[in-house]
C-alpha cells in the first residue's frame, strides 16, 4: 500500500482518472484458487459456495493493476467480508494510516473507508455513483484476469496436497510482487 502522502495522492489521482471517483486508494476483492479436494479433518471447510475446494485470496490493487496487499490464508468457505474484517489492512485503515478509501463489491460492509455499490439506486445521482464505482472497482477484476493469465496454475488450480498448494501459491505471489520491489 502507498505509505507516503505523495504516493497516496498519486494513487488517488490515477483512480480518479478512471471514472472520476474521488479519494480511492485501492480496489479490493477476493478470488478462489482451486485446490485438490482436502480429505483431512476440516476438509469440508475448503469447499466454497460454488462447491469446489479452494483457498480464498484477498487482493487490493491500484489503478495500474498492481497488487498492493494480499491475504492468502483463508479456506474457500470463508466469506470475503470476514477475511477483510480480520486482516491487518482493516486495522491500518481504522488507525488512520491512509488518506483514501477502498472500493469493494456488495459482499463487503460499507464503512467510512470501504465504499460499496448502492443496492437499489433510485436517483440519477445514485445511479451515477454506482456507474463510477463499478468502473473504478473493476480494476481488481482485471487484475485477477491478468494474474490468472500470467500464472495459469491459478486458473487451472493447484492439485498437490494442501500444504504443497499453499507453497506454490507463495511462489506465485513472490514472482507477482518481486518486480514491484
TrEMBL record:
GO terms for molecular function: hydrolase activity; metal ion binding; nuclease activity. Residues 28-158 form the DDE Tnp4 domain. The keyword Metal-binding applies. It is found in: Nucleus. It comes from the Eukaryota. Its cofactor is a divalent metal cation. InterPro entries: HARBI1-like (IPR045249), HARBI1_dom (IPR027806). Keywords: Hydrolase, Metal-binding, Nuclease, Nucleus. The keyword Aminoacyl-tRNA synthetase does not apply. Its main location: nucleus. Belongs to the HARBI1 family. This is DDE Tnp4 domain-containing protein. It comes from Parnassius mnemosyne.
Amino acid at each position: 500500500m502507498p505509505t507516503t502522502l505523495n504516493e497516496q495522492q498519486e494513487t488517488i489521482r490515477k483512480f480518479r482518472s478512471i471514472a472520476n471517483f474521488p479519494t480511492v486508494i485501492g480496489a479490493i476483492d477476493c478470488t478462489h484458487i482451486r485446490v485438490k479436494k482436502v480429505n483431512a479433518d476440516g476438509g469440508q471447510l475448503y469447499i466454497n459456495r460454488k462447491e469446489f475446494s479452494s483457498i480464498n485470496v484477498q487482493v487490493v490493487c491500484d489503478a495500474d493493476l498492481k497488487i498492493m496487499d494480499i491475504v492468502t490464508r483463508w479456506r474457500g468457505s470463508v466469506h470475503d467480508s470476514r477475511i477483510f474484517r480480520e486482516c491487518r489492512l482493516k486495522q491500518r485503515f481504522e488507525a488512520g494510516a491512509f488518506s483514501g478509501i477502498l472500493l469493494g463489491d456488495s459482499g463487503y460492509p460499507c464503512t467510512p473507508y470501504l465504499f460499496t455499490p448502492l443496492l437499489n439506486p433510485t436517483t440519477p445521482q445514485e445511479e451515477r455513483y454506482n456507474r463510477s464505482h463499478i468502473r473504478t472497482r473493476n480494476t481488481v477484476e482485471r487484475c485477477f484476469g491478468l494474474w490468472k493469465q500470467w500464472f495459469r496454475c491459478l486458473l487451472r488450480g493447484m492439485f498437490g496436497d494442501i500444504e504443497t498448494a499453499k507453497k506454490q501459491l507463495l511462489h506465485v505471489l513472490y514472482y507477482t510482487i518481486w518486480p514491484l520491489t
